């Protein structure tokens, strides 16, 4: 408010012009993010479908198998 | 891979534009005739230059597509024109705001600079419907490339014609012939804003192309999945779209 009070005449128009620029940018980025989210969702569905088509269930990857360690070495 | 260096470009764009707008607000002097409203210049003019440059670049990529038939040139041409139309809309709106405060009208039909930019914008506004109207991807890319080359050649010719014409009220700020040369304190933020706007254009183009390629890869996966199920049908055309059909 203090900053705005120090601005000379015509500052509202200047602010409006810069807001238009940032609004356009935000709208574009918003649409892009929305489309990217749609793609991400489609990709998730596709990998599940692919798993099913290959006859596997969509399970989280198993941990690396631990090599058998001789008991005498532990002791 | 259009996504490479996207993070660096994004960071550079934010830093450059923030610096430019900060300098425009705090460092650049207030113009004697127009007063504070002249600050619109630092966003309006770089946007206009980059938009017109983007249209020309779209034409160059269209020409490359016609010569090589490589779909990546069609994608680049489409993206450049797409971004330039968005920037062009920004130019028209910010220009109208500036006109209102400077001349007390939203648009001056007798001014060649304004009308010529509107004509260029309206010309390119037909690009997306043209693409959308053509279903066959190869034909769509070819026709769009011809449009991009023709309209891209029109842009500099139109610009030169306007420059040669007698200016009515629109200022000529980047040359000395009309006494409108910028002082150094105005030139510095202006050129930084021009660099920032160019970086923004490149960043948005890369982002758009990354999206298109990712979508193409998803479509490729869908096809592979259909093939795995034995549901392939190559006879059908892809769904209608104005964007290039990229299938990876």
From TrEMBL, chain A:
Keywords: Membrane, Transmembrane, Transmembrane helix
Region (Disordered): 53-75
Top-rank taxon: Bacteria
Segments passing through the bilayer: 12-34
Protein name as annotated: CcmD family protein
Taxonomic source organism: Paraconexibacter sp. AEG42_29
Automatic annotation (TrEMBL), chain B:
Keywords: Cytochrome c-type biogenesis, Membrane, Transmembrane, Transmembrane helix
Annotated GO CC locations: plasma membrane
Top-level taxon of the source organism: Bacteria
Chain ranges passing through the membrane: 7-28, 40-60, 80-99, 111-130, 142-162, 188-207
A GO MF label: heme binding
The keyword Protein transport is assigned to this record: no
Chain ranges of the Cytochrome c assembly protein domain: 10-170
Residue numbers spanned by region Disordered: 229-248
Listed Pfam families: Cytochrom_C_asm (PF01578)
Membrane topology, record value: Multi-pass membrane protein
Record localization: Membrane
GO biological process entries: cytochrome complex assembly
Protein family: Belongs to the CcmC/CycZ/HelC family.
Protein name: Heme exporter protein C
Organism per entry: Paraconexibacter sp. AEG42_29
